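$ fold --in a.seq
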Amino acid sequence: MNKIDYLGLDGYTLRTFLTVLEETSVSKAAIRLSVSQSAVSHTLDRLRLAFNDALFVRDGRGIIPTAKAASLREPIESILNNLKSLAEQKEFDPLSGALEFTIATNDLPMLLIFPRLIKKLHTEGVKPRFHFIPSGVPSANLSRASRCQLLITPAPPKVKDIIQEQILQSKMVCFYDAKVRQPPKSWKQFANSNYADVKFSDTESSIMVLPSIDTTVLKQPTITVPSFSALSDFIKGTDLITTQLELMKRGQLKELDSAPLPVKTQPLSIYMVWHQRDDKAPEHQWLRQKIRETANLIITKK
């Protein structure tokens, strides 16, 4: 067995390994790292020699990690987190230096929180760069991906290296067009209504996160759209209904009428979710506090 030269395992090498592990693709990892595919492949070859393991093997058109590669994720993440902490031992000032964040979320919390937050930051002279990517019903891998610093979702992954914090909570209500129909008065009417839903993928939709409702007895949606912002235009002038957060009366669904659901449900919570590698990073702590402040303003309707 080869003896691992641990001094040769620099941060760039370890970051390349984690990026390939997250993307399960050499080409996608190369794009994220802004290097050539051959550079990524060369780094993997060095690691294969060091660990005496293939690390990644072909699976159809992609690659999958070996058991050895999967076991290396946590210790390598820990090493990179410690290196990052060493580099961040300085006083943080949001007015100095460039701030850039990638946040995975859907358009519901994105439009509810961040326009207000960004306007406030601009009045303070802070102009960070934000990149938003779709989260759907997020997996643990999305939260672990180093390109994504934060996740805002009602369905946080439940794994030990992911930290979550509730920032908003709202009851669920029925949205509809009162010019066309009345809201459902009973569970039977609700279950038999023509429904509009947000569908994130072939297997994920917004109705999946409805608390305390057996959604399997509902009719299949008449309309499915890829974002919450599209619901209003499809519902206006029709007998369609949708069940969403009451908070959306101030945003994407403000042009629709709303009524309580004809069945008792628990409120739905929205969480701020981050990986433990970013827990102590000053810029991330600062951003999370700004999001908490914005969420509190939304709750108090200021």
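$ fold --in b.seq
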Amino acid sequence: MLNTQTLLQTEVPAEGYYTATLPQSPARPIRTFLPEQVQSRYAYPVLVMFHGRGGNEEEVLRLAPLVSRRNYIAVSVRGPESIGNRGDGRAACSWGDNGGSADDSADAAMQAVQMLRLHHNIHSQRVYLVGVNDGAAAAYRAAFALGNRVAGVVAVNGNLPRSQGKIPLFNLEQVRKQRVLICQSTSSSPTQELNVLRDRKLFYAAGAEVAYRRFKSAAAVPPEMLREVNRWIIDQIHAAPAEAGVRDWESGVR
């Protein structure tokens, strides 16, 4: 569990972006987006965002206000593997092949949510994982490891993690109760689109609650895709009222 003595950060603003650093992971900053006119008495749903290969925590969080400027507190963590620098000089990182380690991605989500709970009023039963491109595999891995602590997972132009034999890396019990939104742009390669359709069929077969949205656009992440992510999450919240109690975000992954 984190506490205010172990968290190093800049001053928390009233809205907008800020960065925090955890002493146990100083090379992996946590970036947070606070919505406009934060209401202290309202428990906000949370988006935990996973960047793709070559991205970083700042790059992926820029998508958060395009999902909604008012509805969520969003947070992102830098992937564990450094692969150089981006064109703007900032770090280029990765979660590793097939989303890396489930323990690593789940622990990153745990630390991010724990940090938010120290400073903001968040809804522990409304934590959604959003993976973009290769970050989708990391989001899936984290969701499967965290189980009912996650309200849903969103894959944006990304796929399920697979072994070298192309077998999906999950078991039925991990998937059966998941709520999943798969978003795909037509700018993706034919192989990517085929894999997404296979993922959709696998989720259906496993008994997951899965929705699929395809967007005709030359852009990889068109604005209408992010608006659909917002609509889907709001629909999930309205369709499934929160249960009594809170999710156990204080303990470790296992």
